[in-house]
Amino acid sequence: MLDIIIEGGSYPDYGKGTFAAGDLGIKDGKVVEIGNIKTPAQRRIHAAGKIVSPGFIDIHMHEEDFLQEGEQFVIADMMLKMGVTTCLGGNCGVQHQDLEVFKDTINRLGGSPVNYLMLVGYNAYRKKVGAGPYTKADAEQQKILLDKMKQQLKQGAYGFSFGIEYDPGMDIDEIMNVLKSFEDKNLFVSVHYRSDAAKSIEAIKEMVRIADQSQMKFQISHLSSCTAMGWMTEALNLINQEMDKNPKLNYDTYPYCAFSTEIGSAVFDDGCFDIWGKSYDSILLTDGEYRNRYCDKELFEKVRKEHPEMLVVAFVMNEEEIAQAIANPYGMIASDGIINHGKGHPRAAGTFPRVLGKYVREDKVLPLIDALRKMTLEPAKRLNLNKKGCIFEGCDADLTIFDPENVKDGADFSESDLPPEGIDYVIVNGKIAVDHNQIKNNRAGRFISYEMMPEGSI
């Protein structure tokens, strides 16, 4: 007997570039039958008119901070409700706790809402060794940092992330001191650029140099917040050209014309508003007594001084350039979701359904099959998740069932945690995790450790 049969739906056949009709039979966490299934099952899900997609894979998000906010899942629950079944955390150089602590907490809680993979956040350890944001780490600090990177890889990290904009004192030499020390060229490197807007093209060229020197899988993080201020066309031309030469290079992007980060970070150093061509009133506060207030100069400076770790939203990007980054043949969809105290940017709860609703159905920026490929198959290949991201007999039963005529994001900038519409079911490792926006099981996910792959994987 099967555990679940999903009958009457259509699923993406990426090899043919179209959708196939067929029932899916699930048992013991795997899809074991595809077709006109006659085997009995404990549960039947009727999916006529619906898309049965591989579970969405968020290749760029920011995991829970168990040390500061308690042993509870917040952002992972948001991810789950919008159809995400696997997440890669530890991006932008940010890592909230050592990997051993993160894994132990998941184990102690009996699992997680999603399958979790992690990067080592270089900036987090840089701060711990006393390297200031505007100065290069000295030789002794770099030695300690390299040891920390090695320790975290032994705990199962998939690679490294660097937030150059947050610690502009780091240069290519400091970054390469880490990357050149590892022979495994299938490790994943995620980099938050040095500069945006008018300086974004030079920042991309710097990342390309690092990618070429490292020979590792290299991800340019959240391209939209780097170049969607008038430089997207030039950026995409450059990246596409470089990707044609180096298939290990790629990028991710999210579907909003506003970014979010801590107000005390170097992102908001003097001159930022001149670079963006914006003013203080483009900054929305997200927490505490100031929640949902836009800044003036006085309020901005007050919060930056008194609450430097508050997440703020900066409305500085152009909508048409967001669409460009999404529609480009290369690239992946990712949320860059980050949450403090349950609040933040709506991308943590709405990214994937927003792409499906706004950019696929309404604006027709790209076909549905291509959007799903950017959310599933491409990140799965990137992360060596050979049993995820595509539906075939024997694949992991991580699935998202949605109505293509109704799916859309629900979260907005005033209520950033509202769930989406049109997602009927989310299945994680063969277990129904979400049933019409109601979480039924948020412990079906597990931590996935990196395993060395054969050279040549991209």
Automatic annotation (TrEMBL):
Residues 51-432 form the Amidohydrolase-related domain. Its cofactor is Zn(2+). The keyword Cell membrane does not apply. GO terms for molecular function: hydrolase activity, acting on carbon-nitrogen (but not peptide) bonds, in linear amides. Keywords: Hydrolase. This is Amidohydrolase.
